[in-house]
Amino acid sequence: MADSGVIEAAVRSGAQWLVAALEAEGVDTIFGYPGGAIMPVYDALVDSRLRHILVRHEQAAALAADGYARASGRIGVCLATSGPGATNLLTGIANAYLDSVPLLAITGQVASGLMGTDAFQEVDIFGMSLPVVKHSFIVRRAEDVIAVVHEACAIARSGRPGPVLIDLPKDVAQSRSAAQPAQRHATPAPVIPDAATLTAAVALLARSERPLLYIGGGVGIARAEAALRAFIATTGMPSVCTLKALGAAGPSASHHLGMLGMHGSPAANHAVQSCDLLIVVGARFDDRATGKLDTFAPGARVVHIDADAAEIGKLRAADIGLAGDLSLALAALEQPLDIHAWREHCSALESLYRNRYDAPGTDIYAPALLRELSLAAGDQTIVSCDVGQHQMWVAQHWRIQAIHAHLTSGGLGAMGYGVPAALGAQLARPESRVICVTGDGSIMMNIQELATLRRYAIPVKIVLLDNACLGMVRQWQELFFAERYSEVDLSDNPDFVALARAFGIEAFGIERREQVPDAIRRLLDTPGPVLCHVRIDPRANVWPLVPPGKSNGEMMDSAA
Amino acid sequence: MIHHFEILLRDAEGALQRLLGTTERRGFRVVALHAQAGPGTICRVELTVDGTRDAGLLGRQLERLQEVQAATIMD
Questions:
Q1: Which end of chain A lies in a sparser environment, N or C, as judged by fewer CB atoms within 10 Å?
Q2: Across the interface, which of A131, A135, A309 has its CB nearest the CB of B60?
Q3: Contact A500, A335 (CB under 8 A)
Q4: A214 has a chain B CB within 8 A of its CB
Q5: Residue A472 falls in the annotated catalytic set
Q6: Per residue in A10-49, is it b (16+ CB within 10 Å) or e — as a string?
């Protein structure tokens, strides 16, 4: 390959063109698992400078590529064979789709002549993945491979990012051809929001007495954190954020009330319910954020800014919709605001509902442990969560100072995300400390990836909060299903410390509160991968909580 | 409620499948469909759907598809 990124003319196999095109795209790491139909690509990898990470399950390949992409801002690439290899990728592809992560999934396929004959390890992965990809291709000719890879990467990265699938039949991968000239697509120019609409939004904001920023994960995707922070500094506007936007407002934002929604802060939810203008930036009115939609922000007019025009008005009508580049829109709206009384009101809410960590008893209080660990680990640390109660405790209590320092499966809520995403993030950002917070349910969904941590000496620090049950489901059964507990008991869990050691991972366990400081120190001081098993109370719940189907103004807390 | 769309669709593998799948998953029933391959690689699709959701939103969701050049409501 020439330094220009243009692939030199030659006669090569489709698999070799694929690898050359990935190199031309600047890809340095791919996550995968070999098998029959993808073997020509694995053969081409032998002569490639691409770093291939052999995971132990294809789902982990997709989720690790997702973590790699979120932590680095670059495209994540995963590779699997046809049939079960391809179907195992699907959860990770869906995860990237719902969280708008740039992901390239490459699957081997049976030879073209066998497609449609129910051949060994044949599935229609193109058809199966249609609802969860931004786009997809079946490559029919070896000479098209380079152009397809460049187009796929451009689609995955551009606008609202997402996963793109390339299905490569084995005969196409093996056949030799001269490539058609093709090179990387240029980055498209940012879409400038409509000027007249911007003017109307500026006027609406100037007239507002109680404006509130509702910040979503789109701010991180659009790399608009700097513009957002400048906007907050100039306007002094109070703000709330979604799960995926934790950290966006930054450490210097005053009047930032934290996460809204089901497990959000009461201060955030009360502010939303009493504001008269919502400036929505890169958020999509997800049901976990809004609670009962028709009671959400009942007195507010809405200015909705999003890179994706199809999000504007999808769930909540916007008085003003601004489709386009978030940074440009925020810069245009920036103006000093005379909202002293509203700021004071939000400050009072913030003080009233500040988190407390003085829980009674001697058992380990997970929120306090997570708070202390995040403070000790420092702001350069990346935290990767699994899904469940611990995910919400991280959202509520971890000190997060940048969007890309917090990896979480927000849209799909995929248990098993934490460990693979952490290993992907650690490979993308070797200079950063990466901590995975997981639960005893979640970790078992991708426990095999401890072998990947061991093989490549990836120094992820794992905190396993073990309540011997599926805690979030148990909590809902307690609160909303009359304590009729159904299939949530995990009291026969394996000995996780012994299990980690069997994988060659250093591990230790704690179960009393006074052990926490030493455990944090040991976790952070261990140079390689390490697992800290933390036994917590099975009856611990996540508070506060908006009951399903209720308004965000009707939060329950532990005293209810 | 019935809505009529005229859609310019790039003729690529899976394009029609993607169009119909998106329409149904976003809450509309396909009532009638006529697709005519046009000059070059553009296919003109006349699509009639029934649904209670916002047809304008469906149009924007269809226009997110890589093969859809335009989705115009003809009501």
A1: C
A2: A309
A3: no
A4: no
A5: yes
A6: eebbbbbbbbbbbbbbebbbbbbbbbebbbbbbbbbeebe
Model ipTM value: 0.95
Contacts with B, A 144-163, CB within 8 Å: 155
Residues A204, A135, single domain; the answer is: no
Distance CA A307, CA A150 (A): 22
Distance from CA of A84 to the nearest CA of B (A): 22
Q: What is the pTM of this model?
A: 0.96
pLDDT in tens, A12-27: 999 999 999 999 999 9
Answer whether residue A559 is part of any domain.
no
3-class DSSP string for A263-309:
CCCHHHHHHHHHCCEEEEECCCCCHHHHECHHHCCCCCEEEEEECCH
Of the listed A16, A25, A58, A244, which one is catalytic?
A: A58
Within a domain: residue A320? yes
Domain count, chain B: 1
Express each pLDDT in A137-196 by its tens digit.
999 999 999 999 999 999 999 999 999 999 999 999 999 998 677 778 888 888 999 999
A554 assigned to some structural domain: no
Number of domains in chain A: 3
A272's tokens = 């939303």
- A169 shares a domain with A21: yes
How many residue contacts between A and B have a Cβ separation below 8 Å? 31
Residue-range definition of the domain harbouring residue A48: 11-178
Tell whether the model's pLDDT for residue B39 goes beyond 90.
Answer: no
Domain range spanning residue B53?
Answer: 2-73
| Domain shared by A81 and A28, yes or no | yes
Q: How far apart are CA A271 and CA A256, in angstroms?
A: 10
For residues A207 and A134, state if they share a domain: no
Look at B14 and A126 and tell me if their CB atoms are within 8 Å. Answer: yes
Is A506 exposed, middle or buried, given 0-12, 13-18 or 19+ CB atoms closer than 10 A? Answer: middle
From A122, A472, A496, A503, active-site residue = A472
Residue in chain A closest to B63 (alpha carbons) equals: A310
Q: Kindly list the averaged pLDDT for each block of 10 residues, start to end, along chain A of length 560.
A: 58 95 97 98 98 98 98 98 98 98 98 97 98 98 95 96 98 90 82 94 98 98 96 97 97 92 96 98 96 96 97 96 97 97 97 91 95 96 98 97 97 98 98 98 98 98 98 97 98 98 98 97 98 97 93 82
Residues of A in contact with B17 (CB under 8 A): 127, 130
Q: Return the pLDDT at A8.
A: 62
User: Do residues A234 and A133 both lie within one domain?
Assistant: no
Say which of B17, B64, B66 has its CB closest to residue A127. Answer: B17
Asked whether residue A262 falls in the same domain as residue A323, the answer is: yes
Residue A375 shares a structural domain with residue A517 = yes
| pLDDT value at residue A2 | 45
Alpha-carbon separation of residue A245 from A162, A305, A333, A346, B13 (angstroms): 17, 15, 20, 19, 36
